[in-house]
Amino acid sequence: MKRPRKAVSKPTGRKANSRRAKLRTRLAGLEALEHRLVLDSTVVFNEIMYNPLDDANDELEWIELHNQLAVDMDVSEWRLEGGIEFDFPDGTIVRGRGYLVVAANPAALEASTGFSGAIGPFMGRLNNGGEELRLFNNDGRRMNVLDYGDNGEWPVEADGGGASLAKGDRLTNSEDAENWTFSSRIGGTPGTGNVVSVENVQINEIAAADQENFFIEIANDGGSPVNVGGYVLSHTGLGGGDFVLPAQTIAAGGRLVVNGDDLPFSPTDGERLFLYTPGKGRLIDGRVVTNSLRGRSVEYDGQWLWPDVPTPGATNNFDFRDEIVINEILYHAPPQLRTDTQPYLESDEEWIELYNRGNETIDLSGWRLRDAVDFEFEVGLTIGPGEYLVVAKDAESVKAKYGITNVVGNFGRSLSNHDDRILLIDANKNPADEVHYYESGKWAAFADGGGSSLELRDPDADNAEGIAWAASDETSKSEWTEYTFTGRANEPLNCCGGFNEWIFGLLDSGEFLLDDISLKRENNATQLIQNGTFQSDTLGRSPAKWRLIGNHSGTVVIDPDNPNNKVLHVVAAGAQAHVHDHAETTFVSGQSISAGSDYTISFRAKWLGGNRQLNNRLYFTRMSNTAILDAPEKHGTPGAANTALETNIGPTYSDFGHAPVLPRPGQPVNVSV
User: Which residues contact 566 (CB under 8 A, 6 or more apart)?
Assistant: First the structure.
């Protein structure tokens, strides 16, 4: 869901940052690799018939898999698990770009639909209310997962309307409800490509089931009139039945109201309504009747929401609240890195900050956070104009750590370290704000375990767009730290001798300042580093005697804590490599390292953001060590103005393009977003 926001014109400004300094020695360590679930895009779920029509014995259920590759896939001894179980027999092949159907009763499916290519039967039955299905290969590796449902963003039409649950695009992932729709063909399309509805006629508004003047509104969103004579409204509840629309036409953009007195049925709370073409040839739409007024919202891309007043025959009316915005997110606090004395450990700190950008105090009674996390605001809780409210996984811990009181919690579930959707719901059950954040792309990478929170740059911008967000600026909290390491100049790999160099690089993307680099042999005062202070270098240029190559770059800048001092600002766009993607310098006069001798390397560094594991060594791996750069323990600005705050970032947009792509001379060009 995306709520449009206006780009406003205001004077720009940015919060200034102070600087501090400290001296400390830190032990070296390595970050453990974070566990990630990777699902292969080979054979995946593509279509599910979990609640067939007129199937009292559940014999017409089936699952269709699709091979997304152009080559045949041997799925012998693969396995389906979840509400059903099935082991694929030896010799089972899914043709390249092809389909494979696993049925509860292949013979019954053939008798009902004529499709004869199903294998099976599978054990168990598919849950009509939804459940998780899992596909494993013959090594026990989970290849695909589908946790479908029959409400929320999952299509209602697949739950008893005669349609199957089908992907709109067979190449999209199986996990997200937004990638699934319903097959307009009754009985689905087992073994072939999915057929989805392209009808312009659909249910537009339904009165509350317990309302005295019950009605169903049908709308024509197309550009041409549609004759709906013979279309069928079907009710599947206990007192269900069919109502055939009399001969009539709905004008382009028009609406048709069917009054409850004309219907042969009276749906109750939780029952379903389906709309079919004449003779129930195709399923067009389906909705759940509730004891609340429901209707489609143009503002939210046709989603089925809660209008504030009935408007039969007119445009649906919603009282949307947009004063409260999701303003800051800490979804992946930096972990405790492994050292000689401590293990690698992920942080449990998570919080979401809300901001009232409006002019009135908002009562949050009955408001909720849903999807990524689960939290309901207590009755009587308010947030005034210009105020912040932090919702935390552990509210007391956040209060104590940051010394703030505007914190509530604890929310259920956890924020994903990769991407997740945070949905703010108002007291009327309508969306007030939504953010689906990501760990990369247009989204700030330093917020993914790099010591920063994710901050909204402008509360009036569209926070659904990654460009509207930035990593919090933590540089005012970081301090200069001295690191010293003494070791013996041996080559443990017995490899690659010969170069007289000192090398350093971060183990992932990050930024830091570097100064006062020294390398000396034991009991020898000779300085081996040629340019370790950068005092004679030109500001804004790379330092003399240094080579910063590949994904590591650096320029000489003024020390933020000492205007009379020059330091090296290093930016790493990725992890260092042994022959590239790092910084290096050759020793004074080309002096060589004496194997077996002890050396001491020291330097000062100030972490700015991102990774804080600075590996440094003599060529090739002599005296290799990793210094953990000192970084602040507090992250972001919970309960206060963002460091990335700007008064006007301008409009945000997506899908910018022009047509035709290669215009002829003088040909008009259409630019769109």
Answer: 533, 534, 535, 537, 539, 556, 557, 558, 559
CA–CA separation, 292 and 602 (whole Å):
69
Compute how many other C-beta atoms are within 10 angstroms of the C-beta atom of residue 577: 13
Residue 312 confidence (pLDDT): 97
Question: Model-level pTM?
Answer: 0.84
Return the number of other C-beta atoms located less than 10 Å from residue 127's C-beta.
Answer: 17
The closest of 49, 303, 282, 289 to 160, measured between CA atoms, is 49
Closest CA to 93 of 79, 111, 76, 116: 76
Which tokens in the block code for residue 348?
A: 């449990």
What pLDDT is attached to residue 616?
A: 96
The burial of 254, by beta-carbon neighbours within 10 Å (0-12 exposed, 13-18 middle, 19 or more buried), is given as middle
What pLDDT is attached to residue 40?
Answer: 52
Which tokens in the block code for residue 192?
């072939």
So what's the pLDDT on residue 41? 61
Q: How far apart are CA 291 and CA 378, in angstroms?
A: 24
The single residue listed with the structure tokens 């035709």 is 660
> In which element (H, E) is residue 109 found?
helix 106-113
Residues of the chain falling short of pLDDT 50? 1-39
Burial call 461-490: b when 16+ CB within 10 Å, e when fewer: bbbbbbbbbbbbbbbebbbbbbbebeeebe
> Which residues lie closer than 8 Å to 667 by C-beta, 6 or more apart?
660
